[in-house]
Amino acid sequence: MQGLIAVEKNLSRLVDILESEGYEVVDLDEAAVESVDAIVVSGADHNLMDMQDTFTSVPVIDASGKDAAAILDELQKL
User: What tens digit of pLDDT does each residue of 26-53 get?
Assistant: First the structure.
């Protein structure tokens, strides 16, 4: 799946890699969430009680503990 991916600002190292693989990348803070194909977050705001409110049907990939190859693999499975 190549498409439009919203990425958190603190994951800027990932942007060049995604773009080189054919993805269009936008800043998560500036994106219209429902217009993107997937969202990549750092996981820094992980809810400690493991309860999260989901406000979108867009797939969200938690990048914490993953390298770029693992994130690309998850995107390709979407």
Answer: 999 888 888 999 999 987 665 544 445 5
CA 63 to each of CA 8, 72: distance values in angstroms, whole numbers, following the listed order? 10, 10
pTM of the model as a whole:
0.82
CA-to-CA distance for 33 and 26, rounded, in angstroms?
A: 10
- What distance lies between CA 40 and its chain's CA centroid? 1
Q: Residue 48's pLDDT is what?
A: 42
In this structure, which amino acid lies at residue 61? I
Helix and strand numbers (H, E) in the chain are: 2, 4
